[in-house]
């Protein structure tokens, strides 16, 4: 299968590396020093499941050099999706699958504004990984998964074939019965821990240990549940209980990528997380006081990062 990894960071680099190592025809989009390092030395992946290299690796910063991929995996941030979709319009065919793995609940809607709905799959991933250095990806925690499906939850031939390709590459591929529920469950975790983590600047486990901060985390998650349910998503009390249990099981130093972006002064997905909940709350007439405080407290730093 011809696969384009659009964004070779922690997510795209890891999953693309696994697929390339398994013999799929993978092209990576990368830039600057990352591009140079991959061209010269290949893509190095350090992983708790065993280190490996893709060398040589097909890599470019010019998407016009990529022709008619069968699958595009988007490894960018949520706020970059629309621009990516505009660039993809000229190279995809009617049969190309575009799979967003970004955190957030409205990635498919953003894609649908630019490219045909038939091309779009819905998805998410579970992994702790990062670009450690130019040409080097570090997968440091959690058994990686890609959870995905058709936007109408049909178990189509193409998603079942894709699941087989993922599994054969050593990636746990899951075609879920309710992709929207799965996306909101992942979103609830990331949005709950990222903003408060950006404010406290400590690991998830340390926040959970503190009774006051744990209460804030729980209130954040309950506001997210209220928005999900108002939008018709089956995000129930059992799911919330699982969310809090999962947060409580995180390590003392574990951090989400958005928290790391905030702490490093980089543009983050704050607006797509707590900001999105605030926006939807205003539209739906639901109070989101905790999410709004977190969002407003971090917004000046976010604006500063984007000016830079």
Keywords:
308 residues; alpha/beta; Rossmann fold; N-(1-d-carboxylethyl)-l-norvaline Dehydrogenase, domain 2; globular; pantothenate biosynthesis; 2-dehydropantoate 2-reductase; 2-dehydropantoate 2-reductase activity; oxidoreductase
Summed up, what is this model?
The chain contains 12 helices and 10 strands. By secondary structure, the protein is an alpha/beta fold.
Q: Total strand count, please?
A: 10
Helix content: 40-55%
Mean pLDDT equals 96
Query: With helices defined by DSSP (H or I, 4 residues minimum), what is the helix count?
Result: 12
Radius of gyration: 19 Å
Shape: globular
Unreliable residue runs: none
Report the β-strand fraction as a percent range.
Answer: 15-25%
Give me the strand/helix succession: EHEHEEEEHEHEEHEHHHHHHH
The chain-level structural class is alpha/beta
* Largest beta-sheet details: 5 strands, parallel
Number of domains: 2
What do we call the CATH topology of the largest domain?
Answer: Rossmann fold
- In which order are the strands of the major sheet placed? 5-2-1-6-7
Q: CATH class of the largest domain, please?
A: Alpha Beta
The CATH superfamily name of the largest domain is: NAD(P)-binding Rossmann-like Domain
What CATH architecture label of the largest domain applies? 3-Layer(aba) Sandwich
Amino-to-carboxy terminus distance: 39 Å
């Amino acid at each position: 299968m011809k696969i384009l990894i659009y964004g070779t960071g922690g997510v795209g680099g890891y999953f693309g590396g696994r697929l390339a190592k398994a013999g799929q025809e993978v092209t990576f989009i990368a830039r600057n020093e990352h591009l140079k390092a991959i061209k010269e030395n290949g893509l190095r992946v350090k992983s708790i499941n065993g280190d490996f290299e893709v060398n040589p690796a097909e890599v470019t910063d010019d998407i016009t050099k990529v022709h008619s991929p069968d699958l595009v995996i988007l490894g960018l941030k949520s706020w970059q999706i629309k621009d990516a979709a505009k660039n993809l319009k000229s190279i995809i065919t009617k049969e190309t699958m575009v799979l967003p793995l970004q955190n957030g609940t409205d990635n498919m809607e953003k894609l649908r504004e630019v490219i045909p709905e038939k091309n779009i799959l819905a998805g998410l991933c579970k992994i702790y990984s990062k670009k450690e250095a130019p040409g080097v990806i570090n997968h440091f925690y959690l058994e990686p998964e890609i959870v995905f499906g058709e936007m109408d939850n049909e178990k189509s031939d193409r998603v079942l074939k894709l699941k087989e390709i993922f599994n054969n590459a050593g990636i746990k591929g899951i075609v879920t019965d309710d992709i929207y529920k799965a996306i909101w469950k992942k979103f609830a975790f990331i949005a709950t821990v990222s903003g408060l983590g950006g404010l406290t600047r400590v690991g998830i486990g340390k926040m959970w240990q503190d009774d006051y901060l744990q209460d804030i985390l729980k209130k954040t998650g309950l506001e997210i549940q209220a928005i999900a349910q108002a939008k018709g998503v089956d995000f129930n009390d059992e799911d919330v209980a699982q969310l809090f249990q999962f947060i409580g099981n995180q390590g003392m130093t574990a951090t989400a990528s958005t928290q790391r972006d905030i702490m490093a002064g980089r543009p983050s997905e704050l607006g797509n997380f707590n900001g999105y909940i605030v926006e939807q709350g205003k539209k739906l007439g639901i109070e989101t006081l905790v999410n709004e405080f977190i969002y407003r407290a971090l917004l000046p730093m976010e604006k500063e990062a984007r000016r830079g």
